[in-house]
Design a protein that fits this description.
740 residues, alpha+beta, Beta-Lactamase, 4 domains, 6-stranded antiparallel beta sheet, 23 helices, 45% helix
Length: 740
């Protein structure tokens, strides 16, 4: 700055000079810091672009090479998460494809040193270190200078990232090494997250595949239809076309190839002893086998060795149910492919599904063949009920969940789509609270959005315990944050997993993934339990089939007795209606219905010559005809299922005044069921056309019933019957010509 100064000696020019060196240094440091932040931001941006491991590594390498001037190319070496071996997994700006195949050479260099020492390294002149000099024929692998930093999270070293320069020595600075070390820390954390993501994704894919196969198996009508579906779905999952399923034949005590694909087809229908070869070994030991070369396996059956092609890897998995071997599953892949541990885990799960499905279908086929063996129902029910305990499963799961920080309580509720209500099956963290037997309507539950939208929902607010839990006079606690995870299996909502937090907080993606995984596991558990419930439903179908058999017997009796068609159905329905009006309920009403169906079953013992005689019966013939209630009693008394229904077939010809047969019972000595049926039977007989007369008008029928009140019929039953006729519309039965 130039200025003038006036003095007695005259006017002078002066200038002021300021030293700005320190400010310039601060400015440059600030620019340097901003450059560093920009570089870190660029690498962070590259990391955030994907959760897939391979693209993540490539993005990080590319970003590091952009922000560090001396970097011409780079590489990443990682430890294999299963074998702990070092692997060259990513390259940047290496053009020669042989570099990836020469990974062993790179793994012996400075990256391995950085991993072993768990510290960053800068090599100013690679060629000056004989242990690092490359002596191969790939020019790109001749490096002049390099920097490398370990990929480290906490105390774990996942691998190393290296940046290389092939044109000059001392291409990197300490600042570059510091920056790469910062990048490596960020990248290591991202790699851990990516691996976790891949594990969860693989698990979900596996669960989805298992769910798909389970759903597909349910579409099969029988074992013959199920086995090809099972094998084809399994081979498709492993991307191969060769495999087979062998099942144990209980009759011949051999293993048989039931379905085959690929070169296994040549063995279709073959049989072998259960202790023969690889299949027999797996079947007997119940232990899965993984084979790198099936042809060279030492215990391969001699009968098959010559036909098994070379260079095929495979797996043989036992198919079992409740620790009982049912067969084996074979899957084969051509070299150089191998069956991995992940493949084995999936195959074992599929084999378990196959075992359950085979057992379920065999049980179903067995019960269909035993329609009249009702005593077997109890055995089947006991087997089904003893095979799974959902409460115990969920208790263990919720106990582990509540052990996590900030989780105050958790519960699993099953969803009933018919009533739109939730029912709590298991809970934890609610010590001292009792579950009340009242419905929790979905619309009043905070889980409503999760079930409606079929996705996990987390909300903040005030969330008390569900109304199904009684606080026993204490204040009901509430929680400031809540997560609901819908339990979805095969596309259907099975229930909800609820988590109550003790404080409001931001949930990490890993936690949400963990909850969703738990929800998937819980849904599968519920779905497996549903399979057992379906078997119980099959038992009920057997009971229905038995009832239809009884109806068939009743119809056969009508045809033999030339009874008016639909007579049995009419008297059965009207008898049940009248019994209900008289206060009969529950199982007793069901026994009355069965007794009405079989009311004339004893006529099977009456000769056709008497039953179909066109003219009057002799005294001896009437005596024989009057024995049909006794025949019914003798036949039905030893059948546990029908013994409670015996009153109508045995006593429906007894009369109130004691003049009936076969025992001559009087008044209330006659069972109520028989007194009810007697009125209905006469009413229907008089109201219907018969071969020997036309139906009576309703008024005449009612007059006759009133006339017989206290003689043939129980007076009280008659009174209620007449009220029933007056109150209800007449039953709409078709009219048939006489003789039908």
């Amino acid at each position: 700055h130039l200025f003038t100064v006036d003095t007695p000696a005259g006017t002078h020019f002066a200038t002021l000079v300021r030293d700005i060196t320190e400010r310039e240094q601060q400015h440059r440091a600030l620019e340097h810091h901003l450059d560093e932040l920009q570089a870190i931001t660029e690498v962070n941006t590259a990391i955030l672009q994907t959760l897939e491991l391979q693209p993540l590594l490539e993005n990080v390498l590319a970003a590091a090479c952009r922000v560090i001037p001396g970097a011409e190319k780079g590489s990443v070496v990682l430890r294999n998460s299963q074998s702990d071996a070092l692997e060259l997994v990513a390259l940047h700006n290496y053009r020669d494809p042989r570099v990836m195949q020469a990974g062993d050479t790179i793994k012996k260099g400075y990256a391995v040193r950085a991993i072993r020492e768990a510290s960053p390294l800068m090599i100013e002149d690679v060629q000056s270190d004989p242990s690092l000099v490359y002596d191969g024929d790939i020019p790109e692998m001749v490096i002049r200078s390099a920097i490398t930093a370990p990929l480290r999270v906490d105390e774990e070293v996942l691998g190393a990232i290296s940046l290389d320069n092939s044109s000059r020595t001392s291409a990197f600075t300490e600042h570059d090494l510091h920056l790469l070390t910062a990048f490596a820390g960020q990248a290591a954390l991202a790699i851990r997250h990516a691996r976790l993501y891949e594990r969860v994704r693989d698990q979900l894919e596996r669960l989805s595949l298992v769910q798909h196969i389970s759903s597909t198996l349910r579409l099969a009508r029988d074992v013959e239809q199920m086995l090809p579906i099972l094998l084809d779905e399994t081979l498709s999952a492993l991307q191969t076309d060769t495999g087979a399923i062998l099942l144990y034949n209980n009759v011949h005590q051999v293993l048989e190839i039931a379905v085959a694909r690929g070169w296994f087809k040549q063995f279709f229908g073959a049989q072998m002893n259960p202790d023969e070869g690889i299949s027999g070994s797996v079947f007997t030991s119940k232990q899965a086998r993984r084979l790198d070369d099936i042809h060279t396996a030492p215990d391969i059956s001699r009968a098959f060795k010559a036909q098994v092609p070379e260079n095929w890897a495979g797996a043989c998995i036992p198919i079992q149910n409740e620790n009982r071997s049912l067969g084996v599953l074979w899957v084969a892949v051509p070299a150089p492919r191998r069956i991995t541990p992940e493949h084995m885990s999936l195959l074992i799960t599929i084999a378990d599904l196959a075992g359950n499905a085979l057992q379920r279908m065999r049980l179903h086929a067995e019960t269909r063949k035993q329609l009249q063996r009702l005593t077997l129902l109890r055995t089947i029910d006991a087997t089904i009920n003893a095979s799974m305990d959902l409460r115990l499963t969920f208790h263990v799961m919720l106990e582990q969940l509540c052990a996590q920080p900030n989780v105050g309580a958790a519960a699993v509720a099953l969803f009933d789509p018919n009533t739109q209500a939730l029912d709590y099956l298991a809970w934890y963290g609610l010590s001292g609270y009792q579950r009340k037997d009242i419905p929790l309507w979905l619309s009043s539950s905070p889980a409503y959005p999760a079930i409606l939208e079929r996705k996990t929902v987390t909300m903040e607010g005030t969330y008390p315990l569900p109304v199904q839990f009684s606080a026993n006079g204490r204040a009901t606690p509430s929680y400031p944050m809540y997560t609901a995870v819908p339990l979805i299996a095969k596309g259907q909502i099975k229930g909800v997993l609820e988590v109550f937090y003790t404080r409001v907080m931001a949930l990490e993606p890993e936690w949400e993934t963990f909850l969703q995984t738990l929800g998937t596991q819980a849904a599968i558990a519920v779905d497996n339990a549903t399979l057992l419930e379906n078997l119980q439903s099959a038992n009920q179908e057997l009971r229905t089939a038995y009832e239809r058999t009884l109806q068939g017997w009743a119809r056969a009796l009508e045809l033999r007795d030339m009874e008016t068609q639909e007579h049995t159905r009419r008297v059965t329905e009207m008898t049940v209606r009248l019994a209900s009006a008289l206060g009969v309920t529950g199982e007793q009403l069901e026994h009355i219905r069965r007794g009405a169906l079989l009311h004339d079953i004893g006529k099977l013992g009456v000769p056709d010559s008497i039953l179909h005689k066109p003219g009057p019966l002799t005294d001896e013939e009437w005596a024989e005809m009057h024995k049909h209630p006794v025949y019914a009693y003798r036949w039905l008394r030893d059948i546990d299922y029908l013994r409670p229904a015996i009153d109508i077939p045995y006593c429906h010809h007894e009369k109130w005044d004691g003049s009936g047969y076969p025992q001559g019972l009087r008044g209330e000595e006659i069972p109520l069921a028989a007194r009810i049926f007697a009125v209905v039977d006469v009413w229907d007989a008089l109201s219907s056309n018969r071969p020997y007369r036309q139906a009576w008008p309703p008024e005449k029928v009612q007059a006759y019933i009133i006339e017989q009140r206290g003689i043939h019929f129980d007076p009280h039953v008659v009174d209620v019957f007449l009220e029933l006729l007056a109150e209800y519309e007449p039953l709409d039965f078709p009219s048939y010509p006489a003789g039908l």
